[in-house]
Amino acid sequence: MSVEAKDQGEATPEIVENQEESSQPDGEGQIDLDLILAPIEAMLVSSDRPLKPGALIDALSVHRDWKVSETELSDAIDTLNQQYNETGRAFSIECVSGGYRMMTQAEHAPVIAAMHRSRATTRLSKPALETLAIIAYRQPITRAELEAIRGVACGEVVRTLMERRMVKITGRAEELGRPMLYGTTTQFLDTFGLSSVKDLPKPEEFADQMVQQGI
């Protein structure tokens, strides 16, 4: 009778323990990627800024004491992106500013801009884009060097870029007067979908495009 009670009633402590262990990482410190896909996705969806790999790994460790490596995290991100691609989702997980962020596909930018009514208010002027490009490629750069390249005063444009959090003061030059040095910010990387300034297009790529277009 006691045997029947075990078969029909609640699981024994040994069975419960085995069931709990089955949801834990298996093998030599390895983890079943399927276990962490949903938690990773939830964290990225809930964040309005890129999340560093370390932050995601720490959260998983606190959540279930899972020891996830950066390689396993990267594999999980690739798996999620593969699922999004196979199901035709409008978004993917991108590496931006040294972290991961959920981003919509580029082809949906016009409708998103229209929804937020932000196309006119967020567009940078041509002088601002020129100034930002020079700072991005020549940073750290002084205002005098910047104005020498552009051939016009850039004070007001630089202030606008700083207000937009695209440009920041990175220090002072070791020259007479110790002029301030300017560089780009993480907001700049985030806005243009770059992981670092090393991902900026090479100048020769622009030259090739101009030749192809007969400019």
Query: What is the name of the CATH topology of the largest domain?
Result: Arc Repressor Mutant, subunit A
> Globular, elongated, flat, extended or rod-shaped: what is the shape?
elongated
The total of beta strands comes to 5
Helix content: 55-70%
Number of domains: 2
Name the structural class. mainly alpha
Order of helices and strands: HHHHHEEHHHEHHEEHH
CATH architecture of the largest domain: Orthogonal Bundle
Q: Give the amount of beta strand, in percent.
A: 5-15%
- Rounded to the nearest angstrom, the distance between the terminal CA atoms is 91 Å
Mean pLDDT: 81
Q: Helical region count?
A: 12
Radius of gyration: 25 Å
Query: How can the largest sheet be summarized?
Result: 3 strands, antiparallel
Main CATH class of the largest domain: Mainly Alpha
Description:
The protein has 215 residues and is mainly alpha-helical. The relative contact order is 0.08. The protein is elongated and about 60 Å long. It starts with a helix and ends with a helix. The model is unreliable at 1-28 (pLDDT under 50). It has helices spanning 2-8, 13-22, 33-46, 53-64, 70-86, 109-116, 119-122, 126-138, 143-150, 155-163, 186-192, 203-212, and strands spanning 91-96, 99-104, 141-142, 167-172, 180-184. It folds into 2 domains: 2-108, Orthogonal Bundle (Arc Repressor Mutant, subunit A), CATH 1.10.10.10; 124-212, Winged helix-like DNA-binding domain superfamily/Winged helix DNA-binding domain (Arc Repressor Mutant, subunit A), CATH 1.10.10. It is built from 12 helices and 5 strands. Helices cover 55% and strands 12% of the residues. The strands form 2 sheets. The protein has a 3-stranded antiparallel beta sheet with strand order 3-5-4. A two-stranded antiparallel ribbon has the order 1-2. A hairpin with a 2-residue loop joins strand 1 (91-96) and strand 2.
